[in-house]
Amino acid sequence: MRIYERKECIAMLLAGGRGSRLKSLTEQVAKPAVTFGGKYRIIDFPLTNCVHSGIDTVGVMTQYQPLLLHEYIGKGQHWDLDLLHGGVSILPPHSKPGSTAWYSGTANAVYQNQNFIESFAPEFVLVLAADHVYKMDYKAMLDYHKERNADVTIAVIEVPIKDASRFGVLNTAEDDKVVEFEEKPENPKSNLASMGIYIFNWRVLKKYLYEDEKDPNSSNDFGGDVLPAMLRDGLRLFAYRFDGYWKDVGTEESLWQANMDLLDDLHLGFENWHILSKSEGRPPHFVAPTGSIKNTLITEGCEIYGTVENSILSVGVIVEEGAVVKDSVIMENARICKNAVVNYSILDEDTVVPEGAVAGESLADGGKLNVYSRGVVFDKSIEDEGGNTQ
Amino acid sequence: MIGLCLSDPHPDRASDGCPIRTLSAARFAGRYRLVDFMLSNMVNSKINTIGMILNSHYQSLINHIGMGKDWDLARKTGGVTFFPPYLADERKAVNNELDGPLQRVTEFLADRNDEYVLVADSSVVYNMDYRKAFQAHSKTGADVTAIYTKKKITSGERENTVALVISDEDRVTGMELAPPNAESVNVSLGAFIMHKRHFIQLVAGERNCGMLRFSRVLLAEALNRLDVRAFEFKGYSTHICSVETFFQSNLEILDINNRNALFDFEGRQISTSRKDSLPTKYGKDANIQNSLVADGCQINGTVINSTIFRNVKIEAGAVIKDCVLQDDTVVEKNASLECIITDNSVVVSENRSMKGYSTYPVYIERGRVI
Q: How far is residue A39 from each of residues A268, A270, A343, A390, measured CA to CA in Å?
């Protein structure tokens, strides 16, 4: 294996999942490519964190609906990751002599890319999920990992105990050494949730990946198989506590909430931790004399002729005269036509709400969140009457 | 075809604190610089080798363009080449005397295989496919094709406007600086297509020249020996050549017809450098009407008929009317501004009030705290 440049630590980003709990939002794009906060996509967060943490080599493992994700990542230029040695590499499943296999699990995806990892001869491998919104210094976590002389370090965050059963939960000793790992336990014993961020000593990980592959009963998953196996063998696993903002955006509700959190605290723009992304380069947004905007984020390319409140508008959204948008997340290039109303909804890219139509239910009246996938949203009453929905 | 950018130094009214940068780096429409239009027009017309002739105060222009990545101009063949003034003779350094770059440009042109050059002024804003003009150039067999547009000129533009005198068969027979006001003037867009041989002859002996000298003097004097034809551009254009025209152009862009004519004309996009600013956040007290707002702003006051550049902060109770506020301007609580241009990083403190007039906007220089 030719080693171009030895790297102490490289990142492997798990970006192949569908994120099926996001339902229609991930029908055509992988979860990491879902729009967030007006001008970002979810994958901007782990990539930005890597860059600001001094990790300049990132393998992005893709599988599910990768077209937009691949195009978005490009050569990594938007994150300064277009480097001569390292930078971003897109790693799709591939055939090789003797096997043609999809990524069967998170651990298997890393296993299948061991040649990529070996070409940088790293001491440590940072494995990242690509479906969370957060700012984190992985360098500090790596320092902790080295300080503890750990085999594996798992980033954790304290969650309310009632929510803990949704996560992988770590039970730790006083020094934060992990004594038990439970994947989505019914009765969690601790409130330390795994953030899906792991640092492994590569040599140790490689050995366990090989063993995991040999086990026909394994689901080839880090949380379900590899970490429990390491614990059983008495390896040194440590929990690294993170206490900043971290939000899983894996469900429609949590994606909506994480967007709304930006209205209270636009935490994307700290000077030293600017979230990098692929900007569209559209003209600034325009607000017409008839427009009214309160408590809202608006992005380049928008044209606002109507009323917008408590909402997040992505690039190129058009709100026509008389239209009202409230408590909603509107993704790229959606159009809300004249006198239409959008309440408490997520509108996917390119959605058109026709003239006079009503989408969603009022949040103030206790309605539930509605998500509209690409295409035209039909007002029920109009649909029933078989009326004009152009 | 090779693109060559000639620009003129910044305009008059320097005593008012005019932007201390070359005009092509002046800002426009919330996030652009004037040069973005020329670069995008050239790239959209498949002109990928571009020379930027620099005179003075060009640092911000170089910073803005960089390698040309944001225009797809960072490439192995072609791309952007800068021609700054340089010290040709160490002994002249005593007098701070620099040589102009035109000699170098001549060598640069001679070394390329491309036969034609498009010489263009980067302070004129429009969206055009130059290939149409080049087709006309080939068809007429002219030595030089001058691109112009028919429009009414305002008093602010007049002084720096070059008009073409056009006779039969679109022949240009004269050039007129500061033409008398008229409903329809043949305004030169400062863009000329010619064989590089002609360009080299025209600038022979020149050390440096801006667009005004090139068209008004060098080309005008050659009208009797060169076949110069006019090609009409039919679309929106605006020439930023003074504080007044800077102000007017930045407010004219609030008209959707002008925006469409510039930013999405026949599907051609205008690129600019990308900064990944945050989305703009409107607060609960925001009141905004008929304004263009770039990303990265925080707006909690009242904004009417204004163009707001990146990362501007407008606090609650502040009232902005008919203003052009450039990057990082802060307007504090209850301040009020009317017909004001701010340069970068101006701070208008609480309760301050300033007013210009639409034909005489007040310009606040960079970094000033009012």
A: 11, 16, 21, 28
Helices (H), A56-121: 67-73, 106-112, 114-118
What is chain A's length?
Answer: 390
Following DSSP, what letter does each residue of A376-388 receive, concatenated?
BPPPHHHHHHT--
Which residues 4-43 of A have a C-beta within 8 angstroms of B?
37-39
Indicate the SS3 state at residue A23. helix
Could you list the beta-strand ranges (E) of B262-326: 280-282, 287-289, 291-293, 298-299, 302-304, 307-308, 313-314, 319-321, 324-325
Name the pairing type of β-strands B144-151 and A296-298. Answer: unpaired
Tokens found for residue B7: 């620009």
Print the SS3 string covering A227-256: HHHHHHCCCCEEEEECCCCEEECCCHHHHH
**Which stretch of DSSP H or E encloses residue A4?**
none
Closest partner residue to A266 (CB to CB) among B275, B281, B284 is: B281
Who contacts A99 (Cβ-Cβ below 8 Å, separation ≥6)?
none
**What is the biggest distance separating any 2 CA atoms in chain B, rounded to whole angstroms?**
66
**Cβ separation of A279 and B274 shorter than 8 Å?**
yes
Please tell me the distance from the alpha carbon of residue A178 to that of residue A181, in angstroms, as a whole number: 7
Check residue B60 and give its pLDDT. Answer: 82
Cα torsion A228, A231, A235, A236: sign: positive
Mutate to test the interface with B, among A81, A261, A298, A309 (most CBs of B within 10 A): A298
d(C-alpha A67, C-alpha B153), whole Å: 50
d(CA A169, CA A178): 10
Å between B23 CA and nearest CA of chain A: 20
Strands B144-151 and B185-195: antiparallel
- Residues A292-326 have pLDDT tens digits of 999 999 999 999 999 999 999 999 999 999 999 99
- Candidates A291, A241, A232, A13; CA nearest to A125 is A13
Q: Which of residues 269-328 of B touch A (CB under 8 A)?
A: 269-272, 274-276, 278-284, 286-296, 307-308
Task: Provide CB contacts within 8 A for A345, sequence distance 6+.
Answer: A328, A329, A359, A360, A369, A370, A371, A372
In the structure, what pLDDT confidence band is assigned to residue B15 with cuts at 50, 70 and 90? Answer: very low
Element (H, E) at B178: none
Regarding pTM above 0.95, the answer is: no
- Residue A58 binned pLDDT confidence (cut-offs 50, 70, 90): very high
* Predicted-complex ipTM score: 0.88
Q: What's the pLDDT at B274?
A: 87
Res A382: pLDDT: 46
Q: Are A91 and A76 in contact (CB under 8 A)?
A: no
Is B283's CB within 8 Å of A292's CB? no
Q: Among all residues of chain A, which has the CA nearest to that of B70?
A: A281
User: Using CB atoms, which residue from B274, B280, B291 is nearest to A281?
Assistant: B274
Calculate ∠ Cα B133-B139-B144, nearest 5°.
60
pLDDT value at B189 more than 50: yes
Question: Stretch A332-353: mean pLDDT, rounded?
Answer: 95
DSSP of A166-213 = GSEEEEE-TTSBEEEEEES-SS-S--EEEEEEEEEEHHHHHHHHHHHH
